[in-house]
Amino acid sequence: MRFLTARRRHPAARGLVLVFALLVMGALYSAMAPSTKSAADTGTSQQVAEGKALFTVSCASCHGLNGEGQVSGSIQGPPLVGVGAAAVEFQVATGRMPMAHPGPQAEVKPSQFTEDEVLAMAAYVATLGPGPAIPEPEQYDPAGLSEEEIARGGELFRTNCSACHNFEGAGGALPNGKYAPSLFDVSNLHLYTAMLTGPQQMPVFSNGVLTVEDKRAIIGYLNELHEQPNRGGLGLGGLGPVAEGLWAWVAGLGVLVLFAIWIAAKGVKAR
Fold first, then answer.
1. Distances in Å between the alpha carbon of 215 and those of 49, 144, 222, 231, 238?
2. Taking the mean position of all CA atoms in its chain, how far away is CA 50?
3. What PROSITE patterns does this protein map onto (predicted)?
4. Same domain, 121 and 55
5. How far is CA 16 from CA 9, 29, 81, in A?
6. Which has the closest alpha carbon to 93: 116, 119, 120, 111?
7. Are residues 117 and 182 in the same domain?
8. By CB distance 3.0 to 4.6 Å, which of 24, 68, 78, 254 could disulfide with 64?
9. Residue-wise pLDDT tens digits, 188-228
10. Is residue 14 part of a domain?
């Protein structure tokens, strides 16, 4: 009588089969994946590395090596995790950052960095946490807006911005030594990113508060307003009838006071 004996598998056979399957899957993925993806990743990684090097030298002393923020004596650097690339581009390209010295507000000055260096730092900070990206030109370019859309932009500006920036965007004083800067000669990109990121004491007008089209309309209104010719005379801060009425009241009241003094003096002499 013959007995059939089953062959026993080697204990490592199952593991070898699994490794072989993984190798086959890896080879298939490498063959089918688009070649351009790796090139794009390399370029982005290089830009981020350059941005990190610049950040470490120029920004980490206030904002921390990893953008976590820190307080050291009079130096108070807020955390940058989640501020996004748009905030970095705005602050650095306008020269507000790095600050020359601690103060109530960062001043506008010539930027210390080239455009490529600014974009590299923005790309690095964007890796620290999700935040607003640098907008595309079609988001902030007001070309093609209708007169109705520009008029709506004026309404939005007067409702949301004029309390600090003045009716024509000339700027104004704020408490504790701060101020709302003038919006004259500000690029459309930075008008947009200021609304998007809310620098310093300015509130954040996210796309959920003011849509992309709302922001374009406001930019279009400011562009048209600032292109108006200067017809001379005193601008009075662009406050219109408010300032004019104040001066009319002061001058008119002053004339009445002088007239009353003259009448009183004549009455005394007549006696």
1. 33, 14, 11, 29, 22
2. 22
3. CYTC
4. yes
5. 12, 20, 45
6. 111
7. no
8. 68
9. 999 999 999 999 899 999 999 999 999 999 999 999 999 98
10. no
User: What is the model's pLDDT at position 71?
Assistant: 73
User: Quick one: angle between helices 212-226 and 188-197, nearest 10?
Assistant: 140
Residue at 170: amino acid letter: A
**Spatial CA neighbour of 69 closest among 118, 129, 113, 119:** 129
Structure tokens at 141: 């370019």
Pairing of strands 172-173, 179-180: antiparallel
**Which residue in the block uniquely carries the two structure tokens 């209104």?**
221
Output b/e per residue, 90-127; b: 16+ Cβ within 10 A.
bbbbbbbbbbeeeeebbeeeebebeeebbbbbbbbbbe
**What gap in Å lies between CA 240 and CA 263, rounded to an integer?**
35
CA dihedral 239, 244, 245, 249 (to 10 degrees): 140
Could you tell me the two tokens for 115?
Answer: 């455009």
Phi, psi of 215 (to 5 degrees): -65, -40
Q: Identify whether 98 is preceded by a cis peptide bond (ω within 30 of 0).
A: yes
Note down the domain range covering 75: 43-126
Distance separating alpha carbons of residues 55 and 243, to the nearest angstrom:
46
Strand residues in the chain grouped as ranges (E):
70-72, 75-77, 172-173, 179-180
In total, how many domains does the chain have? Answer: 2
Residue 150 belongs to a domain with what CATH number? 1.10.760.10
On whether residue 194 sits in a domain, the answer given is yes
